[in-house]
Write a structure and sequence with these properties.
Elements: E1 13-19, H1 25-34, E2 38-40, H2 48-55, E3 66-70, H3 82-91, E4 96-102, H4 105-115, H5 128-145, E5 148-151, H6 157-168, E6 178-185, E7 196-199, H7 220-227, H8 230-253, E8 257-264, H9 270-284, E9 288-293, H10 310-316
Parallel strand pairs: 1-3, 1-4, 2-3, 4-5, 6-8, 6-9, 7-8
Helix pairs in contact: 7-9
Organism: Paraeggerthella hongkongensis
Protein name: RNase adapter RapZ
Keywords: ATP-binding, GTP-binding, Nucleotide-binding
Length: 319
Amino acid sequence: MSESTVDLEHMPELVIVSGMSGAGRTEAMHVFEDLDYFCVDNLPSSLIGNLLELTGMPGQPDERRRLAVVCDARNRDFFASLTSELKKLKERGLDYRVLFLDAEDEKLIARYKSSRRRHPLSVDGASIARGIERERDLLFELRESAHHVIDTTDMLPPQLRTTIRALFAPGEDRTGLQVTVYSFGFKHGAPLDADLVMDVRFLPNPYYDPQLRPFTGLDAPVRDFVLYRPETEEFQKRWRALLDCVMPGYVAEGKQQLAIGIGCTGGQHRSVALAEATADYLKAKGYRVSIAHRDLKLAEGADGLLVTDSAAAAPVAGR
C-alpha cells in the first residue's frame, strides 16, 4: 500500500512512548494495553510507517487501530531516524502524540542497581551514570518536542498509571476496571479467583418452595421471591454501600480486573438473582461489568435433570 492510498479515516491513533531507560516505559505499555492499544515494544523508527499501513488496512478490527509504540535508545542507530520519521507522519497528515518518561539521574541509577540490569548504553563497560549521560544526549531533541513529559522520580506505579490514563483516557477511570460478577454454589466448591466473596445463604431459599424449585434466579418468580423481601432489601442497601466504599479504592489503586463472587447453597436461585442485581448496580455506576453463573448448568429439578425455562435457556451458555 503506497502512502497516497492510505485511508486516513481508518488510520490508528498513534502514541510514541519513549524516554529514559528505567523511567517506567514497561509500566506505561501495560497501561496502554489495558486501554486496548495494540502495543509494540522496541520498534525501529523506520518501521513505524509500515506498521501503520498494516493496521490501517480494511478489515482490521477497530480496537487494533490504536497503536502505542516504544522507540528508545535500545535501537541505537535506528533511533537517530525517529525525528525524521515523525516528520514524515506529520507531512502525511497522520496524528500522533509523543509521551516521554523521565526521572532524575540519581533515581535512575538506584533503579538499575536494584534491578541489577545493565544500562543499554553501557555495553562498552561504561558506568551506569555514563550510560545515562549518553542517553540524555541522544534523547534531548525528542524530549524537547514531546507532547507529554512525565517525571517519574517520585512516582509509584499506580500513580504513573493514573497519570497516563488522565492524559490519554480522561474520564475513563471506572471503565478501565473490568469487573466480573458471578454466582456460584458453595456445595460445588468455593471460588478460587474471587477478590470479593459474598455469602447469601442467610436469605430464605426458594429451593424449598416446590413451585419455585425448577426455576433459577434468571426467572421472574424466583427473582421476585429473592429480591423483594424485607431482609433482601436491607442486605442490598448495605451491600451497595460496601461496593460504593471499595470500588473507588480499586480504581485509584490501578486494579485492572476484579472478580466478585456471590454464593448460595447450589448456585441456582439466590446467588443468581443477586449477581444479576449487583451487576446492574455497578453498570449504572459506570463500571465495565460482565456476568457469569458458574453453576447454573448444574441446575436440577425434582427428577435430577437440568431445568431452565425457555427465557433463561438461551442466555445461560454465554453468561
